[in-house]
Amino acid sequence: MMERIRELPELLPCRVCHEDCAYLEHENGWCCYITCGNCGSSTAFCAYNSEEEMAEAEKNAVRLWNFGKVIAEARLE
Ligand SMILES: [Zn+2]
Known about the structure:
By secondary structure, the chain is an alpha+beta fold. It has one helix at residues 51-67; strands spanning 22-27, 31-36, 46-47.
């Protein structure tokens, strides 16, 4: 079995707006997070210091997103 590089588990639809447009974003090469392209909700930043840690941080961000640990940007009225 070949190990594929940078393969991420599937992202669930956004918990806040229920759109299926979540994606992984990197912030200046030190952390990453999952954010919703529709409403702007996101997970906490997952920091990393090396390539190896980056892969772990990406997985952590996906885990946070899929568990629903999401910071909602949308304002509730
Ligand atoms: Zn959303």
